[in-house]
Design goal:
Order of helices and strands: HHHHHH
Radius of gyration: 18 Å
Number of helices: 6
Largest sheet: none
Strand content: under 5%
Number of strands: 0
CATH architecture of the largest domain: 3-Layer(aba) Sandwich
């Protein structure tokens, strides 16, 4: 939300929650006007008509919600805030081991059952090379480091 505030030049009131369920309930009840949350938490409520999607924070449209327009297409060029999961190994893991793990992950990712399971919760399965994932991680560290600087957040 801080990134959205800064890019859009708006100010929002931050309401901290311990988790998605309470926040979703408050949005559905009209106690809170807007929130960001992963599709995995909200998709069933959107499909059930209890939540309305104002925009999605990825650059690409979602196959799960094809009519949901990315925020980047609504005037905030380059707005790209997505959650992701990845596989990591200790530094110094032998390249042959990394290659074998990547091959096993690719085989698992190719199974229809895993693909269907991830899609059912609004996820998208993306498998890259270890090198590409490393580049992605570095770009995420840069992006979120800048978000912390822009937000003015400090550790107590």
């Amino acid at each position: 939300m801080v990134v959205l505030e800064k890019q859009a030049g708006i100010q929002l009131n931050h309401i901290p929650y311990k988790g998605s369920p309470a926040a979703i309930n408050d949005v559905m009840a009209g106690q809170v006007p807007v929130m960001f949350d992963p599709l995995a938490s909200t998709l069933q409520h959107v499909k059930g008509g209890k939540l309305k999607v104002l925009g999605i924070s990825s650059l690409q449209r979602s196959d799960q919600l094809p009519n949901a327009v990315p925020v980047a297409e609504q005037g905030l060029k380059g707005f790209d805030i997505t959650s992701w999961l990845g596989f990591l190994a200790p530094a110094g893991t032998p390249p042959a081991t990394v290659a074998a793990l990547n091959a096993a992950i690719r085989r698992a990712a190719a199974t229809p059952g895993l693909q269907a399971s991830i899609r059912a919760t609004g996820g998208e399965l993306v498998v890259t090379s270890p090198t590409d994932f490393g580049h992605f991680l570095h770009s995420e560290v840069d992006k979120w480091g800048q978000a912390v600087v822009v937000s003015g957040l400090q550790i107590d």
